[in-house]
């Protein structure tokens, strides 16, 4: 019971970090407004792709299910509606991840100012610079690849009998939320020279916070225009998430017993 309470507490702590990120709008509105520019540009492209997919969905589902042409009505329509819903759920996962990846790549100079402002608020060791444009592009391409894999997983989960209709969107929110949290929080780590394996090891002890922050961010992205206004706050909140994990790792290392040398014969 205590462990469950701890997990729930960590989850809502992660949600609170996103809310704290929104609070930066009141403290530093100038840099937050700058963060809207790349988010709005990429949002228009992503929404356009989703709208095109929606209009083309009947043709796509017909092409994917030719075997249902001879079925008795209304079963062909039921099957194709289910397939369309599964595909669109997968597309939303890929769209959210692609939006984040492209926005971070395009708007790296803007978002660097946001996470640096949060770093200064938290205090301690603050890096002087971010990742650079090409490093951001590489990380963004990697995130899109992972998002594509997650979208396939969501589509396959929708094929599970009975529970697939609920499982697919739920899994989509969880997987995309986790990917968003990991990518958004990577800047403070990599600016300190902490590579992927070490970063994942540090965050492993904060799974509930990562999930809470990621799911809250993904749900904000699903609100109309939410992705545009939530993106700067997500960058700020992710910086808090990363700093919390980093500070905990430093404190744990400092309190760990130091190995003693054995006496030499």
UniProtKB/TrEMBL annotation:
It comes from the Bacteria. Keywords: Amino-acid biosynthesis, Cell inner membrane, Cell membrane, Membrane, Sulfate transport, Transmembrane, Transmembrane helix, Transport. Coiled coil: none annotated. GO terms for biological process: cysteine biosynthetic process; sulfate assimilation. Pfam families: EI24. It is a multi-pass membrane protein. One of its GO terms (cellular component) is plasma membrane. One of its GO terms (molecular function) is high-affinity sulfate:proton symporter activity. It is found in: Membrane. The chain crosses the membrane at residues 6-26, 33-58, 78-106, 143-160, 210-231. Its main location: membrane. InterPro entries: CysZ-like (IPR050480), CysZ/EI24 (IPR059112). This is Membrane protein.
């Amino acid at each position: 019971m205590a462990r469950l309470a701890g997990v729930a507490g960590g989850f809502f702590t992660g949600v609170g970090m996103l809310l704290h990120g929104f609070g930066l709008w009141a403290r530093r509105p100038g840099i937050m407004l700058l963060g809207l520019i790349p988010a709005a540009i990429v949002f228009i492209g992503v929404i356009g792709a989703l709208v095109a997919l929606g209009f083309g969905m009947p043709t796509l589902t017909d092409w994917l299910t030719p075997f249902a042409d001879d079925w008795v009505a209304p079963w062909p329509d039921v099957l194709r509606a289910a397939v369309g819903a599964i595909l669109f759920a997968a597309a939303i996962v890929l769209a959210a991840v692609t939006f984040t990846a492209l926005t971070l790549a395009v708007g790296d100079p803007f978002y660097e100012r946001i996470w640096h402002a949060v770093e200064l608020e938290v205090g301690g060791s603050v890096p002087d610079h971010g990742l650079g444009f090409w490093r951001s592009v590489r990380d963004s391409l990697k995130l899109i690849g992972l998002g594509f894999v997650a979208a396939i997983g969501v589509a396959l989960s929708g094929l599970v009998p009975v529970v697939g209709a609920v499982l697919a969107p739920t899994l989509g929110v969880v997987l995309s939320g986790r990917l968003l949290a990991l990518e958004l929080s990577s800047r403070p780590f990599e600016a300190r020279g902490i590579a992927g394996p070490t970063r994942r090891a540090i965050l492993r002890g904060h799974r509930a916070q990562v999930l809470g922050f990621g799911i809250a961010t993904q749900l904000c992205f699903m609100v109309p225009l939410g992705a545009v206004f939530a993106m700067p706050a997500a960058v700020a909140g992710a910086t808090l998430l990363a700093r919390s994990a980093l500070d905990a790792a430093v404190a744990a290392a400092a309190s760990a017993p130091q190995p003693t040398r054995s006496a030499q014969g």
